Amino acid sequence: MGKRPAATSEWLMYIQTIILGGIIAFASHTYISWLKIPNPLNKSIADTSIYLIGLSMALASVCYFWNVFDRFITYRKQLGIVGLGFGLAHIYLSFGAVQKLLSPAVWQQGIPWGPFTGALATLIFLIMAFVSPGVVAKKIGGKAWRTILRMGHIAVVFIWLHVYFLKFGYIAKWYAEGMKTFPSSSLIVLVFMSLVMVLRLALWAALVKKK
Question: What is the pLDDT of residues 79-96, one digit of tens each?
Fold first, then answer.
């Protein structure tokens, strides 16, 4: 009976995070549709995955520099897991791209960096999700557990590269043509993930200075 309130609280946090994901997906879908970008459903799901995972990875930095957000630090796990769920949904909807990634003919033409970096990020987050339960931490040891979870920062770089390789050509064309429309959601995602990485570097520098 003593563990029940904590379990209930955790499920409530998952529900709240799923609702947040739904709101982000709706807003992203509306924006993408307004810009008349093809395949808005898959694109909005992919963007939602990145936003949730980015928030999960950025929370430690945000809470370190701005104490007002400290009460949200406990949502890191839920943001990461739900974000991964959206990412897996994106992969399912991108089945054609996944098939190409598994085709030897594609690799003979060179490394498909866009899908490849996305696959690497997904693999890392799947490993992180597997070891996230406390019982796994006890089995593998706290040091190994923390090391695996820190791999998420490498995955963030892979996500940035994934979007960059797939969408930079469109962004460059938009810029060259005089930026006559609002920026694409891909550019917004790149800026957001860049901010996540900058915050992490700032936290690292602050901790080094403190030591």
Answer: 999 999 999 999 999 887
CA 204 centroid distance within chain = 20
CA 81 from chain centre, in angstroms, equals 10
Cβ atoms 119, 17 nearer than 8 A: no
Q: Which runs of consecutive H residues, i.e. helices, occur in the chain?
A: 4-34, 40-65, 76-93, 95-101, 104-108, 113-131, 134-140, 142-150, 152-176, 185-210
Q: Contact 79/55 with Cβ under 8 angstroms?
A: yes
Residue (of 73, 84, 122, 76) closest to 101 by Cα position = 122
- Which domain CATH number covers 112? 1.20.120
pLDDT tens digits along 98-152: 777 777 877 888 888 888 899 999 999 999 888 877 667 777 777 777 788 888 8
Range of the domain at 19: 4-210
- How many domains does the chain divide into? 1
The reported pLDDT for the residue numbered 209 is: 86
* Chain segment 63-84, per-residue pLDDT in tens: 999 999 998 999 999 999 999 9
Q: Report the distance separating Cα 25 and Cα 29, nearest Å.
A: 6
Instruction: Provide the whole-model pTM.
Output: 0.89
Q: What is the pLDDT of residue 176?
A: 93
Cα pseudo-dihedral 99, 53, 51, 75, rounded to 10: 150
